[in-house]
């Protein structure tokens, strides 16, 4: 980054005020140095950021792009400083946790609520993202833990897994389909059916789980549409796109808009909580103790 934070601060103020005078007042800065910072930034970027013709100030097309890409930088830096100061003073600790929509059940909500009640000084920061993204974030240190659903089948260095919940697999069937009135479905009955599924890229462990059990039932699943989000898959079933095999708890997504039918003799899905390997921090230890109690 060739430009300074002061230059970015001046640019943001002018972009939001669309006035060099008001921007200078906002920053408690004289207008000539403000203008110098803007000119220096434009020289470094090699483009004009503001149209200064006439009495009005407006963002150029390049300026609008630069503003859109940088507008969250300064608030994030301010927030990072505040959190760091609070942490250093012992005011609060923080846990950054990921979750996938398929596991956002009443049980998980109860865990989070109870943890906040017992440990109010620990800040919980939740991020909704697919299992593959959570594991990547754990490895690069941007998440402390995550509810990823099924554990990956391959070795995952630097990550430990804590079992925490089991549930049934169910068939989500559009109303009007011949199977929608059934009380139970044998997995073999879905051979040849058009299936909607969570993408293997977003949730590789769950995709492998379905391929394995469909294979044991004697067929390869015919997937016609994929989505990275389990909730979106459930909604597509309600819209009549096809049948889906999903954790039974996702019945809350479709409500009365689709039939949710148990799969006969299907093994239960074992959900895990993933965390960074090694000795847990005190906040993480408190969280795991509650999760496994």
Stated plainly, the CATH topology of the largest domain is called D-Maltodextrin-Binding Protein, domain 2
Portion of residues in helices? 40-55%
- Number of H/I helices: 11
Radius of gyration: 26 Å
Order of helices and strands: HHHEEHHEHEHEEEEHEHEHEEH
Shape: elongated
CATH class of the largest domain: Alpha Beta
Beta fraction of the residues? 15-25%
Care to give the gist of this entry?
The protein is α/β, with parallel strands linked by helices. The chain has helices at about 5-15, 20-25, 30-45, 60-70, 75-90, 105-120, 130-140, 205-215, 230-240, 250-255, 280-290; strands spanning about 50, 60, 95-100, 120-130, 145-150, 160-165, 170-175, 195-200, 220-225, 245, 260, 270-275.
Name some characteristics of this structure.
D-Maltodextrin-Binding Protein, domain 2; alpha/beta; 23% strand; 11 helices; three-stranded antiparallel sheet; elongated; five-stranded mixed sheet
Tell me about this structure.
The protein is α/β, with parallel strands linked by helices and 293 residues long. It folds into three domains: 5-76, Winged helix-like DNA-binding domain superfamily/Winged helix DNA-binding domain (Arc Repressor Mutant, subunit A); 92-166 and 271-291, Periplasmic binding protein-like II (D-Maltodextrin-Binding Protein, domain 2); 169-267, Periplasmic binding protein-like II (D-Maltodextrin-Binding Protein, domain 2, 3-Layer(aba) Sandwich), CATH 3.40.190. Helix content is 41%, strand content 23%. The protein is built from eleven helices and twelve strands. Strands 4-3-5-12-6 form a five-stranded mixed sheet, sandwiched between helices. Strands 10-7-11 form a three-stranded antiparallel sheet, with helices on one face. A two-stranded antiparallel sheet has the order 1-2. The relative contact order is 0.13.
